[in-house]
Amino acid sequence: MITNLAVSFGLLFGGSPLIENMFFYPGVGYFLNNAIAKRDYTLMQGMFFVIIIMVVASNLLVEIMYRYLDPRLREQ
Amino acid sequence: VTRKGEVRLKMGESKYKLKNAGNLKSFITTIWNSTMSRIGFIILCIFLMAAVLGPMILEQPKADYLNRLQPPSVEHLLGTDYSGRDTLIQLILGSRDVLLVAFWAGVISITFACSVGIVSGLLGGKVDSILMMISNVVITIPSFPVTMILSMLIQVDNELMFGLLLSLWSWAGLAKAIRSQVLTIKHKDFIEASRILGLRKTDIIVNDILPNIISYIAVNFISIMKEAIMASVGLMYLGLVPFQGNHWGMMIQLSLTTSGALMGSGTIAYFLAPVVGIILFQFGCYLFATGLDEALNPRLRV
Questions:
Q1: pLDDT one-digit tens code per residue, B226-265
Q2: Regarding predicted confidence, which is higher, B202 or B78?
Q3: ∠ CA B261-B262-B265 to the nearest 5 degrees?
Q4: Would you call A36 and B240 a contact, using CB atoms and an 8 Å cutoff?
Q5: B168 pLDDT exceeds 80?
Q6: pLDDT at B300 over 80
Q7: What is the reported pLDDT for B108?
Q8: SS3 state at B125
Q9: Which of A51, B178, B206, B237 could serve as A14's disulfide partner, Cβ 3.0–4.6 Å?
Q10: What confidence tens digit (pLDDT) does each residue in A21-70 have?
Q11: In this structure, is the dihedral angle defined by the CA atoms of residues B38, B44, B47 and B51, taken in order, positive or negative?
Q12: CB atoms < 10 A from the CB of B210, how many?
């Protein structure tokens, strides 16, 4: 369950392209879509970098959290 | 294997198939008996019939600018779009494209996930660690943004290419799940027996492993179809896929950009029709997949 939490937490930071476009909310997904529409490769790279960093960071956070939540792992 | 052995193997195979046919009957009755999967089955059947029969009966609606942006009426049950085409006919014709895209996405990603999962589960060792490393990377990167970027690079001009585009980044989770399934049955007696008999790896995969994980694959096929429809409609809505046809995502995008459906005009039906279609289809998929899971996985049946 916590593993799922990690992935969705990362996605949360990555933003939702669909909803941001729907409401013109200037988030990561909105800019990503604009970048793709305008073939702006550097902006695309940057946005993608942010998303990936967020997912990886939240996965790392969860790995660390496992230590505290699961007593079996702490003893190892 | 001698000639006699071959004959015996074939006989065994036919017996096996007969046994499976009996299972098929009980399988259908199990699906029919549970209310959830029965509703899902009926919904999916209606969509399937619309997709198959629609293009045979109905013609492509022609533009009729005198009757554009009509509200629902007796003549046009769901109103008309920005160029006077009937929305209901578009919706029925569009279901074919939606289903085809979802079907191809499901087939391609299942094939990919199966080959990766079975190979890495069965062989183990270095192949396993390399394949699992690749699929871990694919799992970690969120699929929708990647698909957005890939849609720019890949020229999407038919349903097959669209399915390929959608399945390029959605196979990894299933591959890992299939790998773990293979790992659990890998050391069961019957597989050990066929390995001692000296059967080839392909025989073991086709005759021993696939029948055991086929139910798992069937459930996942439907959930991948569900996700593929969501992603395809999303891409269409963002206008990233220049795909000709009556896809529902195209209808949503056109209704928002050309007629301002959300701004309170009378064309709300044109926007709502594909949305309700998608919701119903997803609902049917979900119910059917849950029921299928119940029917195929005896541990869930109480």
A1: 888 888 888 888 877 776 667 787 777 777 777 665 665 6
A2: B202
A3: 55
A4: yes
A5: yes
A6: no
A7: 92
A8: helix
A9: A51
A10: 777 777 777 888 888 888 888 888 888 888 888 888 888 888 888 778 77
A11: negative
A12: 13
Nearest to B142 among A11, A37, A39 (CB): A11
Residue B130's pLDDT band (cuts 50, 70, 90): very high
> Which of A21, A36, A55 is facing B141, going by the closest CB pair?
A55
Who has greater pLDDT, B158 or B116?
B116
Residue B116 corresponds to which tokens in the numbers above? Answer: 């990766």
Residue with tokens 């005759």: B207
What's the burial of B95, exposed, middle or buried (CB within 10 Å: 0-12/13-18/19+)?
buried
The candidate with the shortest Cα–Cα distance to B86, out of B108, B71, B106, is B71
Cα angle for residues B234, B52, B269 (degrees, 5° grid): 50
pLDDT digits 0-9 by tens, B15-27: 444 445 556 677 6
Task: Work out the average pLDDT over B51-69.
Answer: 73
- From the CB of residue B43, how many other CB atoms can be counted at a distance below 10 Å? 19
Distance (Å) of CA A76 to CA A60, A62, A64, A70, A71: 19, 17, 14, 11, 9
Q: What is the mean pLDDT of chain B?
A: 78
CA dihedral (B5, B10, B16, B19) positive or negative: negative
C-alpha–C-alpha distance, residues B91 and B247, integer Å: 8
Q: Tokens in use for B301?
A: 């049946």
Residue tagged 């029917």 (tokens): B295
Nearest to A54 by CA among A6, A1, A3, A4: A6
Enter the tokens of residue B151: 């849609």
Encode burial over B118-132: b for 16+ CB neighbours within 10 A, e otherwise.
bbbbbeeeeebeebb
Question: Which helix (H) or strand (E) element contains residue B97?
Answer: helix B87-123
User: B148 and A36: CB-CB below 8 Å?
Assistant: yes
- The pLDDT assigned to B260 comes to 63
Distance from the Cα of A11 to chain B's closest Cα (Å) equals: 7
The torsion angle over the Cα atoms of residues B130, B134, B139 and B141, rounded to 10 degrees, is 140
